[in-house]
Amino acid sequence: MPLPQRFLTSVLLRREGELFLFDCGEGTQISLKKLNLKWKKISAIFISHTHADHVTGLPGILMLSSQVEREEPLYIYGPPRIKEYIEASIDVLDMYINYEIIVEEIGGAGAVHTRPGYEVRSFPLRHSKPCVGYVVEEELRPGIFFPEKALAKGVARGPLWSQLQNGSPVQNDRGEQVLPADVMGPKRPGSKFSFVTDTQYLDSVAGNVKDSDLFICEGMFTEELAESALEKKHLTAKQAATMAQDAEVKSMGLIHYSPRYTSKELDILLREAKEIFPNSFLTRERQIIEIQNQD
Ligand SMILES: [Zn+2]
Ligand SMILES: [Zn+2]
């Protein structure tokens, strides 16, 4: 349930000016408004499952998105019945929508949203109703360009350098062909972001979120309540940390805390997580986290 200082689960991801929303609990609109972003142009919304605490913010977001002009459709992905929920909301609430909404129901593992430069994939979680996790993974980035190698190969500084950097072979001043690989290092990984909530502990999660730069994961309970977590099909902070450790992610932010914990008591969740995975942190309302490209 939402608390006065703690809203329900939602994560906004910005990549090269494009916005993606992961889950949309009640009150998400207020947070977005306070962030002062141009959030009415979200490109795609990814829903983990249709429990109320993850979707009740959606109708408001859809309605308010109609306050701006947009040409591009809004894509919404989620497990079965997400379409029914959106269509019923639009119908019963007489929502005025001035843009196209494309809803795709997804089953489990696979690519759900592929665009130049990146791909969003889903994978199955185990909860009391169909639920999926998501990863956003960028394509490999070009390797580092070495000017001294280009000069040694007889390619003078100028437009030929950018052609090489863009992956095209060029001719040097002796009329010989110079390949990008002659003057550039190996391709480098892009960024990887992953989002996992709500689920019981599952070994398969680590493989899916492997090497993420940022892993946002449910950490609902302390170890003391591990049994009840399993029964309700939720994670403890320690289990989230175990997944982070197995997946060798760069950092993990806990989310989806049980309302039983006061803000102070959340430190126990963090302590338990850090014992397993030191690079853990507690996510907070409107916290902004920069995802650094790994080199
Ligand atoms: Zn749930
Ligand atoms: Zn939940």
- Distance from first to last alpha carbon: 40 Å
Low-confidence segments, ≥5 residues, pLDDT <50? none
Helix content: 25-40%
Largest sheet: 7 strands, mixed
Count of helix runs: 11
Q: Which molecules other than protein and nucleic acid are bound?
A: zinc ion
Indicate the radius of gyration in whole angstroms.
22 Å
DSSP E strands, number = 14
Strand order of the largest sheet: 6-7-8-11-12-13-14
Structural class, by secondary structure, is: alpha/beta
SSE ordering:
EEHEHHEHEEEEHHEEHEHEHHEHE
Strand residues, percent: 15-25%
Global shape? globular
Q: pLDDT average, as an integer? A: 95
Secondary structure blueprint with pairings:
Layout: E1 11-15, E2 18-22, H1 28-35, E3 44-46, H2 52-55, H3 58-64, E4 74-78, H4 82-92, E5 101-105, E6 110-115, E7 118-124, E8 132-138, H5 147-152, H6 159-165, E9 170-171, E10 177-178, H7 180-183, E11 192-196, H8 204-209, E12 214-218, H9 226-232, H10 237-247, E13 252-255, H11 266-276, E14 280-282
Helix pairs in contact: 10-11
Bound molecules: zinc ion (ZN) (2 copies).
